[in-house]
Each structure stands twice: as structure tokens, then as C-alpha cells.
Amino acid sequence: MNCQHCGNEIADGAVFCKYCGKRTDGLKTCPVCKKDIDFDSMFCSFCGADLAAVSAVSEAAASADGKESAVHNQAAPAAATSGATAAAGVGGKTAFSLTRILNIAAVACSALVALFALIFIFFAGYKSIVELSGQKVTSTADIFYFFGKAYKDRAEAIKLMQPSNYYKAATFLPCIFGTVISAASLIAVCVLVVLSTVYNVQYVMGKSKKSGEAFAIAAFAVFVFCSAALLAMVNSTAEYSSGYQSKTIYYELSSATVAGIVLGCVFTAIWLCCKIAVCGKQFFQTANIVKCCLALAGTVFTVVAISLLTLPAITIDSSEAGITDVKCGVLQLLNSLGLLSFKGVGNELAAKTWVVFGLGIFAFFATIAAIICGGEFIIKAINNISGNGKRSLLGASVRTAVFVLFAMVLVIVCGEMVFDIALEIGDSQNDSVLYYGVPIAAFVLSVVAMAIAIAFKIYSNKSAARTAAAEASIAEGAENTQH
């Protein structure tokens, strides 16, 4: 690239020109507080110093010699600061720079994101929809459903069935997972929102340089995780057709949950725009634009991969038999296997069902871990785009891909084992076909996100190397000038 002051060619990402010595990133350093501010600033946006007054005093001090010069240099910051205070305060009012206003706007948006997470976490859940001959019946379950009512409903459902121990375990397993996920998410959101509020108030009052934006975004991420995990736990679709009647059962996020996610995403996007505006011209440098595009692309692929994990993992195509079409997750698969146990199984098949039960639990754990790691990737990518962090995305992307791979393999193994057991019992059609397109697609997308993270790391390392080389060249030039 070329220096905007002298026009000479310099290294990409260089902060100073090695020919004229001026900054090339559109910033300058305040002589009083030593912080970087916009190049065209007349007052420091951090300490409020009158930069023109400071410059005049500095030039006067530079023209003096000996001790007199030293005395002037020490008095200049104090005089400039007092002059800036007088200029900034008129009738007790404080002059705010555009950067300060944008920072406060970003804090306000993050506070709203945290507020939405706190409100809608109490409504997070899903709804089951039953369509029977054109009529639709809907029932909703939120996180409090798993603190008592879920267990009562399951106990009532199996009270007269005399179920096996396996079926009892498979029936209450989603309730246990739902309780743990709901309780952990509720506690995490409340703690993160409190931390976000405390830090944001201190930042706005000028008592802290650190805001609570990161805690607010994390609280919203926990709310989204809770919603996705609960849906992944129960999500299934079943279509039955017999004679002139048809019945369809499926699950989706509740209306309140969708509203919370949409509102949170909107204000997160506004927050991100404010953070980009704070960066100013520096954001539009080639290196930053390339890294932001890579982070954004990785975020998109990761979001789609996580969304796929909430869908039914297994599709059972029985269209040729003309009876049912079923899509189910791994926990629903275990429950279906429990229903088969009523037909009576030998000791060998009974042992096999418990093996499937264990594998199914590990598959669900891997799914939850993949959702958590995917959320970690998204948060890091957003922080990189906003300028709040320069962390690598590779670790989170690798963990996401690995857990998605584990979940995919375990789901396929469980599906095939359950299908074999059903064939041996004689409860399945020989022409039925199992498909695993959803977990496979999620794995492919997670691998693409990992490849993007690798490209992000390589480009970041090269950009950092160019910057270091430019700084070394500047230091060498300054040293030669002194000699």
C-alpha cells in the first residue's frame, strides 16, 4: 500500500511510514494521556485535552533550552489538561466525542441483549404440534416443565403399561436432561446478566475502562443454547396414514423463544455496527476486511451446522409400506426401542438394547458439546469482527467438528443397531430405509467452518508478521536518524 501523506510504497498493515514517519492508520497519539485517537480530533476523546493548546505549549517548550525547557515540558500537560477542562465544561456540561457516544450506544445495545436473554430464558422451550385430519392441536413446554410436571406426565403415561426397566429409563431420560439443561442455563443467564449490568454501569459512570458487553453476549448465547438443546432433545416428526385419516406430529421452538432469539439477534447486529463505527477507518484496512469476511463466513457455516443438530437426526423411510414416515432424534430412538421390549426379547437382545442405550447417551452428550463449541466459535468470531478480541478461531472450530463427528458416528451406529433389533423381533418392514443426511450435512459444514478458521489463522499470522517487519523497519530508521 502507499502512504497517505508522502505517497511512497510501504508494507501492508504498517502503522507508520518508514519514509516520512507519519502514522498511516488514521490515528494519532494524545500527548497528555498517550492514547490513540482519530487523526482529525481537536480534543482528546479520553482525557479531553485541547490538542492545539498542547501542541503550542510543546513547540514553545522545544524552542527553550536547558532547565527552562524541562520546566516547560513538565508544565505543558497540566496546563493543557486544565485548559481542556475549562473548554470541555461549560455550565457543568461535558462534551462527548462521537467515539464516546458510539461506545455508550454499543453498551446500551448490549444491555438490551442481556435484558432479552434474562426475560426470555423463563419462556425458553418448544411446542409439540399434532395435525389430525386438518385439525391442529398445540402444546407448549418451557424450562419449568422439567422441574416437576414432565416427570408426572411420564409417570402417568406408563403407570398402566407394566414397562421394563429399560423403557422406564428411556422414558425419564429426556426429563433428566431437560432438568439439568434448564437449571444450568437459568443460573448462567442470571449470573452473566448481573455481571454485565455491573460492568456497564461502572463503564458509563467512568469508573471502569471495561464494559460488560462480553457478558451480555454470553448471556444471550446461553439462552440460544438452552433453546437449541431442549429442541434437539425432543425433536422428531412422525407421519401416519391409514385409510382416509392422516396424522402428523412434529416439534418446533415456541413463539416466545423465537421472539427472544430474533430480538437478541437484531440488537446484537446493532451493537456490532456500533463497534465497527468506533473502529473508524482502521476497520476498512485490507487486512481487517479480509479477516472479518473470514470470521463472518465461518460464523454462517457454524450457525447452519448447529441448526441442523437440533433437527431429527434419523429418517426412516417406509413409504413403500404405505404406513409411516418417521424422523427422530437419538433419545426418541431409545424410547422407540423401549416400546419394542414389550414384544419380548431374549437375553442377547436385552443386552444389546442396553448397549444402544449407552451409545445413545454418548451421542446426545456429543451433540450438546458440539452446540457449546459452536457457540464458542460464534462468540469469538463476533468479538474479532467488533474489534474486542484478536483470538484464534481454530481451536473452537476443531472441537466443534470433532464433537459433530462423534455425534454422527454414534447416531449411525445406534440407528443401525435399533433397526437390526426391530428386524429380529419382526416389528419392522424389510423395505424400510434409514437415512442420516442431517448429521452428515452438519459434519460437512463444521469441516468447512474449520477450513475457514485455518485460513483465518494463516492470514492473521502473515498480517502480524508484516506489521512486525514494518515496525522493525521504522525502529531501525529512527535509530539511524539519531546516529
Which short descriptors sum up this protein?
single chain, 483 residues, alpha+beta, 3 domains, 7-stranded antiparallel β-sheet, 12 helices, elongated
Question: How would you sum up this structure, described in words?
Answer:
The chain has 483 residues and is of the alpha+beta class. It has three domains: 1-95, no CATH class; 96-282; 285-483, no CATH class. It is built from twelve helices and nine strands. It has helices at 51-63, 66-88, 98-120, 149-158, 165-204, 213-234, 255-279, 286-309, 330-340, 347-386, 394-425, 437-482; strands spanning 27-29, 36-38, 125-132, 135-142, 236-242, 245-253, 314-317, 324-328, 433-435. The protein has a seven-stranded antiparallel sheet with strand order 4-3-6-5-8-7-9, sandwiched between helices. Helix 3 (98-120) runs antiparallel to helix 7, helix 6 (213-234) runs antiparallel to helix 10 (347-386) and helix 8 (286-309) runs antiparallel to helix 12 (437-482). It is elongated. The two termini are 29 Å apart. Mean pLDDT is 79; it is low at 60-95.
Task: Reconstruct the topology from this structure.
Elements: E1 27-29, E2 36-38, H1 51-63, H2 66-88, H3 98-120, E3 125-132, E4 135-142, H4 149-158, H5 165-204, H6 213-234, E5 236-242, E6 245-253, H7 255-279, H8 286-309, E7 314-317, E8 324-328, H9 330-340, H10 347-386, H11 394-425, E9 433-435, H12 437-482
Antiparallel strand pairs: 1-2, 3-4, 3-6, 5-6, 5-8, 7-8, 7-9
Helix pairs in contact: 1-2, 3-5, 3-6, 3-7, 4-5, 5-6, 5-9, 6-7, 6-10, 8-10, 8-12, 9-10, 9-11, 10-11, 11-12
